[in-house]
Amino acid sequence: MYESRPAAMSSFWMPFTNNRDFKRDPRLLVSAKGMYYRDVDGRELLDGAAGLWCVPCGHGQPKIAEAIAAMAGQLDYAPTFQMGHPAAFELAERLMEFSGHRFGHVFYTGSGSEAVDTALKIALAYHRARGEGGRTRLIGRERGYHGVGFGGISVGGIGANRKHFGPLLPGVDHLRHTHDLERNAYARGEPEHGVELADDLERLVTLHDPSTIAAVIVEPVSGSTGVLIPPKGYLKRLRELCDRHGILLIFDEVITGFGRLTTPFAGDWFGVEPDLMATAKGITNGAVPMGAVFSKSFIHDAFMEGPAGIELFHGYTYSGHPLACAAALATLDVFREQGVLENAARMQPYFEEALQSLRGLPHVIDLRSIGIIAGIELAPIAGQPGARGYAALKQAFADGLLIRITGDIIALSPPLVLEKQHVDELFGKLAKVLTQLA
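Structure (tokenized):
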């Protein structure tokens, strides 16, 4: 079904899309399997972006599809307000195991945006529960992306995502971003320069007083703003400063979680543990919308010490949806049974070397990667920021390749089940695209 072009396309207002241009020349996907999509014209397209960063195990995993179908026939919906269902509790235990039992509890949401807003609300409510209700300020970072809820865009630092929507949340400030093209271009893994940028938190602490700051939220690796990798020691320094001033540290691992850096979470790779961690995307291999906030036990326990009754007045109709739980449980099975993380670690050096082969091609001004994620920064066309990146997206699709762009940066995050032939195809086609760009 749905194998042909729709008769009309005007009714669907598409997200984060140049709607008018798209509908003049649509890019329609109708099926997916393994590392590939198929479009409405029957062409195969290598998935260089894991959909929207969210399909680590590859497309069409039978175990996940079967689990969703079985749950749909058994329990299509169940509330988790004052009720529950077994899969939600089983999944929570499995997620604690997947995280190495470094967290104590998980709160379900329906998306990454909801997970971020949930983490921010938990941070604020935690301080109030322990008698520090004056800690209401939230600190994000320039060029950070934390979804599209009002909390997420307030702590986020991408101008285009903020400017249309009014003053946003009060009491929010931002750290400086870590991207230093002049000193760190073509770095492999963590850049050498910039650990001192973490000390920008001291500037904000001095400005606002630490007793007013509830939490700092950062992406361990900023994905949607162009794969910005933190300098060596940066995240550890940020952790130390938060501990010094009693500030909670939140990692937004919506993109980096579930294997993108070859470890379960980015915190594992960097050796830094946040207090709260927002996740989504790969938790269900993209098959059913779901998000989850991982919480340290001391945060959860602070809510359990007050009067009996509802401890946290927060949640969503679809928190712990049965189909999402079934998909997530099956996804964790696939990670284990198919050695997805082990394959990603095995492929990482080959992926990095293939990326570096693009150095010297037209318009390329930086290449950066960590784990199985890469950013290719292109020189912008004078007076037309983003135009070259958009042209790359369209040319890649025409050449049988799906990529992500953010401005003039190409972001790559293929499924973690990739093999050498997929890496060769990905970068071979991308090299051709780059040589064709104006």
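Residues 25 and 394 are 10 Å apart (CA to CA). The chain has 16 helices and 15 strands.
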